[in-house]
Model the fold of this input.
Amino acid sequence: MKIGITKFPGTNNEQDVTRVLNFLNVENELLYPRDYKKLKDYDALILAGGFSYGDYLRAGVVAARTNLIDELHDFIISEKFVLGICNGFQMLCEANYLPGVLTTNTSTKFISKWVDIKVNKTNSPLLKGLESKVMRIPIAHYEGNYYNTEESIKQLNDDSQIAFQYCNEKKEVDSLSNPNGSIANIAGIVNNKGNVLGVMPHPERASFSYLGSIDGRSIFENLIEELRC
Amino acid sequence: MYSGKAKDVQIYENNKVKLIFRDSISAFDGEKKDFLQGKGEVNCRMSAKLFEILNEYGIHTHYHSMIDNNTLICDKVEIIPVEVICRNVTAGSFCRRYGVAKGLDLLPPVIEFFYKDDELHDPLVTQEVAIQLEWMTKKEAMLMRAVTRAVNNILVELFDMISLQLVDFKLEFGRTHDGRIIVADEISGDSMRLWDKETGEVKDKDRYRKDMGDVVQHYNDVYDNLSKLSKLPELSLSTKAQVIVKLKQTVLDPAGEVTLRSLNRMNYQEIDNIKLGKHVFVNCLTAPSSELLKDLSDMSEKLFSNPLIEDYSIDLWFEEER
Done:
């Protein structure tokens, strides 16, 4: 069993993800865009965050037009797991593997801070056992403002695809807890089959107690458990 | 199918037509008419020659082949009823209309639109009116301008090689069954003004208009000299395009909001909306064409903009590199 972690020019979170996977004793490897043909060797792919290709034009769009992300189409069809974190989530949206788009924070500021997110009930095995829990987790982004049309938001809600929402300590999804202006406080989305998950906050930075939280680790643990069974 | 003042159009196979050049010639909206032996053939040959040359430079035309002395096989098109005139030097109706002397250089060259209607005497028409009256679309006008400038660039250099000055010329455009805009009709001594660079001698239809005589002989002269050319002018045509990407009105633009507040603080109070967009300048290494415009739309939809939150507009033009 092997998990690939993408490394695009300008991304900088792949080492953090590697550290978590090493800690969980799972074989993993960095995957560079030029090595897209190796994608089929992996059982799951994690799109690590950062600022791929300088985030020129729109966050994640240049990466989303590479062969590697094109190849991801068949990988996703074959129901393998894909986890997009931060810039990885932006890539998945720009490539249309997940609905919506992430635009500039309403504050027009880069936001780096700890937030609480509520895990909703979805059909994704990656969130098994986490439903209605609150995760303490950091965000670090300039374009984290999730946007989609009203009809699409309703559809996502009806289809239980809204995986995470920014909330307060009391699990209330309110506007005060919304750090970036995301519609419906959306912090993460899952595709309708449940094998593609995109999340703006960084679960890999909430995976060790010395970092201040281990809430994010369970997503990786779920992934590994799914791959093992 | 259709019979014009100097040509007939007949249906041919596979969305093509036969363009048959007759020996008739006319001027002043058909008030002056004549029959000149050999004029059909020389215009047919000249058009074939010039269309072939334009094709070499990537200009998309209706021309396919010449099947006999008077007949071209061309794409079947719906002719856009607006002619494009490009002028490098003042002459003809331009001088009469604006009261300027003949022979003045126009740099950059001037583009004019005329509505094709004999009864109205082919009046000059503004782009705004032609679009309003649905004679052409905004996109067609943009393409017709760009293609005409590119054709002018090629023809000026080409005729310079045989010591002729391209004073002005007319182009017509057509819409193909698959929605492309291409150069149509003819390009010949009937549709341009050519002056000898040394002597100023007139080599075009003004010989007929002004009863100067030897019309066909001079047309043949130009054609023969063009045919003797062993190579074409070295030109690397490029088309400029500008894509403007704007956030949709319904999408919040935080940067625009901040900019608006800054303007308000600077005491510009009577402004209530600012949208910041992106500007993408594209230098394309091909001549302007509807295919290029289609490519630019694809680029805009797939990369420059995200259709969920942004709209785009494309501006395309050709700049003479002289």
Notes: Residues 11 and 50 of chain A are 4 Å apart (CA to CA).
